[in-house]
Design a protein that fits this description.
The chain is α+β, with helices and mostly antiparallel strands. The protein is built from 4 helices and 10 strands, in the order H-E-H-E-E-E-H-E-H-E-E-E-E-E. The chain has helices at 3-14, 30-37, 72-80, 90-97; strands at 18-22, 45-52, 58-65, 68-70, 85-87, 115-118, 127-130, 136-140, 151-154, 158-160.
Length: 162
């Protein structure tokens, strides 16, 4: 099953209403998407894979609004219990999730991969999530996160962009 089909299956399993939005892959990056399609950075939620630099490596997916910056070296590193953490590379992300950067979504993550959602995401009425590829986005209530496995809402996971 391709990644977009996996995302649709994961969405259907939540029972939450959603809308699939086609996206020109040339505008899949967050800032370009928001400008072209008229969404705010607060509505746009990025899913970022972080790696804890230990042996063996540990991974977590983090969902934050585009109006914030993920606190990788503070909150995420401490929660992972590691001395060093960083964004997973594009190749590492694709290998782990089957998704390309600018299409990574909190939906259809690999079994066992934890998902931490910044509490600010839950303040939005509806959010835009990646669709697993650069050609699809998902418009959905943030309460979809309440129904995803291995998911925890975390206060101050990200900091506002000044």
């Amino acid at each position: 099953m391709d990644i977009e089909a996996q995302v649709k299956t994961a969405l259907d399993a939540t029972g939450v209403e959603y809308e699939l939005l086609p996206c020109d892959p040339n505008f899949a990056d967050t800032a370009a998407f928001c400008e072209k399609y008229g969404y705010t950075p607060e509505q746009s939620v990025n899913t970022i894979v972080v790696v804890g630099k230990v042996d063996p490596r540990v991974y977590v997916a983090c969902a934050v609004t585009a109006a914030t910056r993920l606190d990788v070296n503070g909150a995420v590193r401490r929660r992972l219990g590691v001395k060093k953490a960083s964004f997973a590379s594009a190749d590492e992300t694709r290998e782990l999730t089957g998704m390309m950067i600018s299409g990574v979504t909190a939906l259809a993550l690999p079994e066992g991969l934890a998902l931490w959602v910044d509490a600010a995401v839950m303040d939005q009425e509806r959010v835009i999530l990646g669709g697993g590829s650069r050609s699809m986005k998902v418009l959905v209530t943030p309460h979809v996160f309440d129904r995803l496995p291995n998911t925890e809402v975390v206060d101050s996971l990200a900091n506002p962009i000044a």
